[in-house]
Amino acid sequence: MSSNSDQTTSAITQSPTSAPDAATAAAAAAATAAAAAASAAAAATDAANTAANTAAATTAAPAAQGAPTSPLGAAPKLHPLFPGNVFVSTVLDVLNSKETMTGRLVSKYMQRALMAGLFVGIFFTAFFAISATFAAAGPAMALAGKVLGACTFGWALVLIYYTNSELLTSNMMIVSIGVYHKRISWLHSLRILGLCLVGNLLGGLVVALLMRFSTIISGDIYTVMVAAVATKTGYLGQGAFGIADLFVRAIFCNFCINIAMLMCYNGKIVNDFTKCIIMMVAVFVFAYLGFEHSVADSVLFLIMGLHGVGDPLMEVLAIIVVILGNFVGGGLLIGINFAVMNDQHTHHAERSLRHNIGRR
Predict the structure, then answer these.
(1) What is the mean pLDDT of residues 281-304?
(2) Dist. CA 129–CA 108, nearest whole Å
């Protein structure tokens, strides 16, 4: 009896102490289970997000490949020493198309050259019309008319560029680079330039014929254009100095035209608005300063010739001088100059030569 009583008393005494320990253990186990469940849920969420992002990237990749890139980020990476390689490469690609067109597609090439003559004839006439209209309002307005007329004439080059028309003066640069890189012979280059000149003149003749049967060339416009013909042929009457003056003006003219083409072809500028501004400014400079453009002058002579103005022989001689000057400005100062400047093969040859001399 005494032993059983002691055991009962001991159990009763120990019971209040063991109950809190069990509750604590149960709570800890529950907390651990809850934490494990939360971790599993977080892991599942991360896995779902990763899968969703991967699926989205996979879906967007083909669309991104087909989507047009931003014009501001489309410029190719340029060579640090020879950034003009992009320009030369682009020009040589353009030359390939001209070779093809003057071979198997001569009629198409002539049509493009004719279109350039139309643009030059119409916009050069607009230049004189605007200048004459403002000049008639008084001397104070003459300068404004000259500025506005030169800006308007600049759109001719923009239209020629974006319609893929063929202009003699810009082709001088292209064939010169082709000859330097031995992609074309001088004889073939003369064929390209000759066909282009004929096409440009035909386009100018179309403008001249149409204007002859209209009243566009009349009044103050007629007077200003007559004076322009006299000025351009008058250089020849001034002897060697006058011929040199005409020649230098022709050099500067095509330098302006082809520096604009260089900027459009060099790979650094891909924004069309910027290209338009560059071409317009280039033409503005040569028109405002009175530089001489062989195609524009030829069209002027054709228009006024059908109105009975000018000496054909003097006009032909003037155009010959201007064509030679244009070739120096565009073909040599831009074409050959930039071809040599960006010729990596010459650079490597010079380095090899210096290295060999140093070893000796």
Answers:
(1) 98
(2) 32
The tens digit of pLDDT for each residue in 96-121 reads 999 988 888 999 999 999 999 999 99
CB contact at 8 A, 91 and 265: yes
Phi-psi region of 244 (alpha: psi -120 to 50; beta: other; left: phi over 0): alpha
Residues in the chain, total = 360
CA-based max dimension of the chain: 154
Whole-angstrom distance, CA of residue 76 vs CA of residue 265: 12
Instruction: Report how far residue 292's alpha carbon sits from residue 197's, in angstroms, rounded to the nearest whole number.
Output: 16
Q: How many helices (H) and strands (E) does the chain have?
A: 13, 0
Burial class (CB in 10 A: 0-12, 13-18, 19+), 202: middle
Tokens of 356: 């060999």
Give the pair of three-digit tokens for residue 70.
């931003």
By C-alpha distance, which of 103, 291, 322, 328 is closest to 200?
322
Evaluate if residue 54 carries a pLDDT over 60. no
Is the torsion defined by CA of 46, 52, 54, 56 positive or negative?
A: negative
Place of tokens 């980020």: 73
* Contact call for residues 293 and 286 (beta carbons, < 8 A): yes
Query: CA-to-CA distance for 191 and 339, rounded, in angstroms?
Result: 21
**CA 276 – CA 282 distance, rounded (Å):** 10
| Residue 322 near residue 246 (C-beta atoms within 8 A) | yes
Q: Report pLDDT digits (tens) over 166-212.
A: 999 999 999 999 999 999 999 999 999 999 999 999 999 999 999 99
Q: Check if the beta carbon of residue 118 is closer than 8 Å to that of residue 167.
A: no
Rounded CA-CA distance 216/207 in Å is 11
